Amino acid sequence: MKADNIRKSDLGGLSMVAANGNENPNIEDKHDVLRSTQTVIHKALEKLGYPDEVFELLKEPLRMMTVKIPVRMDDGSVKVFTGYRAQHNDAVGPTKGGIRFHPNVTEKEVKALSIWMSLKCGIVDLPYGGGKGGIVCDPRDMSFRELERLSRGYVRAISQIVGPTKDIPAPDVFTNSQIMAWMMDEYSRIDEFNSPGFITGKPLVLGGSHGRESATAKGVTICIREAAKKKGIELEGARVVVQGFGNAGSYLAKFMHDAGAKIIGISDAYGALHNPDGLDVDYLLDRRDSFGTVTKLFNNTITNKELLELDCEILVPAAIENQITEENAHNIRAGIVVEAANGPTTLEATEILTKRGILLVPDVLASAGGVTVSYFEWVQNNQGYYWTEEEVEDKLEKVMVKSFDSIYDTAETRRVDMRLAAYMVGVRKMAEASRFRGWI
Ligand SMILES: NC(=O)C1=CN([C@@H]2O[C@H](COP(=O)(O)OP(=O)(O)OC[C@H]3O[C@@H](n4cnc5c(N)ncnc54)[C@H](O)[C@@H]3O)[C@@H](O)[C@H]2O)C=CC1
Ligand SMILES: O=C(O)CCC(=O)C(=O)O
């Protein structure tokens, strides 16, 4: 059966019936990131002429592990946390992707995040498939030692399916190099070998790579620069708004500030700051905490919703999913939206922004700098020979520019938006690898 004959029911009833069986999908269903990514994969495969079985293979992860992690809390009680690890497709190579610690982590979200990782790895041409992990927890309410016990417990729980040649985790929302270090240590104990290649985003002294901490933002900065050239926007003096002030958002604000742009708005989970004359980025960087929180220090804040609608040239969502929806897409005033976050714009909003002539650089391209330098870290760990920061930056620059160009050209020649173009580029390698392996 051809891709254009794929039944609507194969997409989980994307058009009419929600996953919960409702005829009228509620807002949560409409913003179901797994179903949205399946819709675009379906379209991409259709455009590329792949048969139905390719969609059947790629619409869900090959493997999904749910684990219970008992953790002794500091007060002596035991709390049992739920964790997930999804491995989307390992036809190309081991799976790769971050681990998220967040109270709103769900199984569906982790599945979608693993699919996005496969697409990213295809886009920047890494020898990986996509994986992703998550633990339902709020690290902001946990002590240092509780976090250590949770991180080690998670690795023990998933140890059978991960490893340097199977599935290689990394940081994501509310996880950092310290958590990667505990996880690497725990895995090394289980493996009875020092195994730096088990995980990336480690501290430099444990085999981390130069440039990994800032890599996601560096990749986004390169995409902004390339997109600005296409739109004839001068970066010097351009007004930039960044949602999220964590790993991705804070480095991004710094890089854009250093490039001469004016950062007029930033936000965190608690609110947003706005100054039309430009915020003092260095001061904010100095004052933010390890969870990317800074707005609590100020009284005159605005909301995240107001932030997204500020008048600016460049808008960078760098926090969480479903921030630009059909409700606010008409009010976005930026000329370019570059997605540092995974899944910040719904499909309806993508359509609205594209129709309005706003250039949207999608997550699977824009945020691929992180996994690219993670790959460099893994290569360095495997060969035991380490590169300078300049070498890493030079290689990242080449990868990102090439990937941006290939997706921009695909969008132009196939007359599709950048998101669909990115999916078309990203899905091809894993589809071909699955075919050569004889899976489809
Ligand atoms: N860290 C990495 O290497 C990569 C991260 N990403 C994506 O970038 C996004 C941000 O990740 P990181 O910067 O690593 O996380 P982080 O944990 O360092 O920072 C997250 C930021 O988002 C804010 N935030 C959380 N919930 C929010 C909400 N409901 N509304 C507004 N802001 C909120 C936090 O306050 C914080 O400022 C995520 O979508 C992540 O998946 C993508 C590629 C790689
Ligand atoms: O660095 C990595 O391996 C994965 C980063 C990640 O989780 C992401 O790109 O969403």
UniProtKB/TrEMBL annotation:
Matching entries from SMART domains are given as: ELFV_dehydrog
| Annotated substrate binding sites | K96, K120, S374
Q: For this UniProt entry, which residues form the secretion signal? A: none
Residues marked Important for catalysis (site) = D172
Report keywords, A-Z. NAD, Nucleotide-binding, Oxidoreductase
Which CDD domains did the record assign?
A: NAD_bind_1_Glu_DH (cd01076)
The GO terms this record gives for MF are:
glutamate dehydrogenase (NAD+) activity; nucleotide binding
Name this protein carries in UniProt: Glutamate dehydrogenase
What is the source species? Mesobacillus boroniphilus JCM 21738
